[in-house]
From TrEMBL:
SUPFAM superfamilies assigned: Serpins
Superkingdom to which the source organism belongs: Eukaryota
The family this protein is said to belong to: Belongs to the serpin family.
Protein name: Serpin domain-containing protein
GO cellular component: extracellular space
Record-annotated Serpin domain positions: 34-385
Length: 385
């Protein structure tokens, strides 16, 4: 029986009944995240943001329509635990129901598969797209300007980001069979709010030759914090309100040391020795928007021959993934719950010790959003205001 990927987004859901499967899922998500980051950073010098979990989801939908050979390549690259088709469909239905809201954090998502007019689409793919993946399938003539406009309008309408074109008339050719588009927006509310009065314009050190002004927030309170001497980097966890999701910020000691840290990205997901000191945290406010075409990255990761214009038989009308696009937006600002004046201690900090640590993110850093019961939701880097 054909197998499909299992995905979770913050709630353990039915995975809780099988801890072994859950651990396999989380481990696979982490491996996929690392490999995807390595590929995407190759062609990107500036800020970027990707959502590994969401990409796994839309690629899982595409699996339903793929041939057996392509299925194996895609499934292997996604590094997912196995389950029957029916079990996967049921799981995805539960997952999608929880995608739009996690506690006070807003997670808006949209998926769509644009296919060439006349392409053979199996009924199972059509039904699963709507019922299990909260997705749509739309037929287009990819060579028509009106189709390009239609795709860009759909992206703009679902991200509230007008005036930015995801695709142009040079994006497709007569070989284009299907285009997968995945959109994600995240706005969270911190457990511990940054006081707006402390936000100031300060220098942000982009490179040895470039310094820019950035709006930097500041708060002093207790956080989960770790220092890795081997990586020469600080780690801090910022929890979101009414959610198990948190953001981890990883800051190299060297102001211009992010590239070296990225070379060792696998180690960033090793267990760190966190404790709970009082931290003076300085962090930029930012709205990071990133549009990435991912088919090259996915081919390099193991999907060669399974996706792209040269995959399959260009002369038949069978479903084949040609292009994969993802647009992700994350908003980071001061909003959250006001930190009470009475100082408390995080578990792990001896009550007789008052530790003050400076975490000054005034130079490029890496960050990711994660749920302990699901895996990595977003990962990205911030290098310039």
């Amino acid at each position: 029986m054909r197998i499909l990927v299992l995905l979770s987004t913050g709630l353990v859901l039915t995975f809780a009944q099988n801890s072994a499967l859950l651990q396999e899922f989380i481990a696979g998500n982490q491996r996929f995240t690392v490999e995807l980051y390595k590929e995407v950073r190759k062609g990107t010098d500036g800020n970027f943001l990707i959502n590994p979990l969401s990409l796994q989801m839309i690629m899982s939908l595409a699996l339903i329509g793929e041939s057996d050979e392509d299925f194996r390549k895609i499934f292997s690259t996604l590094q997912r635990p196995e389950a029957t088709l029916d079990e996967s469909k049921e799981m995805f239905t539960q997952i999608v129901a929880n995608l739009d809201k996690t506690g006070d954090s807003t997670i808006a998502s949209a998926n769509k598969i644009f296919v060439k007019k006349g392409l053979e689409i199996g009924e199972d793919l059509k039904v699963s797209a709507v019922n299990n993946f909260k997705s749509e399938i739309d037929e287009l003539n990819f060579l028509a300007k009106s189709s390009i406009a239609k795709i860009n309008k759909w992206v703009a309408d679902n991200t509230f980001d007008k005036g930015v074109e995801m695709v142009t008339d040079k994006s497709f050719s007569k070989k284009t069979k299907s285009v997968l588009v995945n959109l994600q927006y995240f706005k969270g509310y911190w457990q511990k709010k940054f006081p707006t009065r402390a936000t100031k314009s300060r220098p942000f050190y982009v490179s040895e030759t470039v310094t820019k002004q950035a709006e930097l927030m500041e708060v002093s309170t207790n956080f989960k914090y770790a220092y890795n001497h081997s990586l020469r980097a600080q780690f801090i966890e910022l929890p979101y309100r009414d959610s198990d999701m948190f953001m981890t910020v990883i800051l190299p000691d060297d102001k211009y040391g992010l590239p070296g840290l990225e070379e060792r990205i696998d180690e960033l997901f090793y267990d760190q020795f966190y404790y709970g000191p009082k931290v003076r945290l300085v962090l930029p406010t930012f709205e990071l928007k990133s549009t990435v075409q991912l088919d090259d990255a996915l081919r390099n990761m193991g999907m060669e021959g399974a996706i792209g214009e040269n995959s399959g038989n260009p002369n038949d009308n069978k479903f084949q993934v040609t292009n994969v696009y993802q647009k992700a937006i994350i908003l980071v600002d001061e909003e959250g719950q006001v930190v009470p004046a009475k100082r408390g201690k995080i578990q792990g900090t001896p009550p007789w010790v008052e530790v003050l640590v400076d975490f000054i993110a005034d130079h490029p850093f890496l960050f990711y959003l994660k749920s302990p019961g699901a895996g990595v939701f977003f990962i990205g880097r911030y290098v310039s205001p």
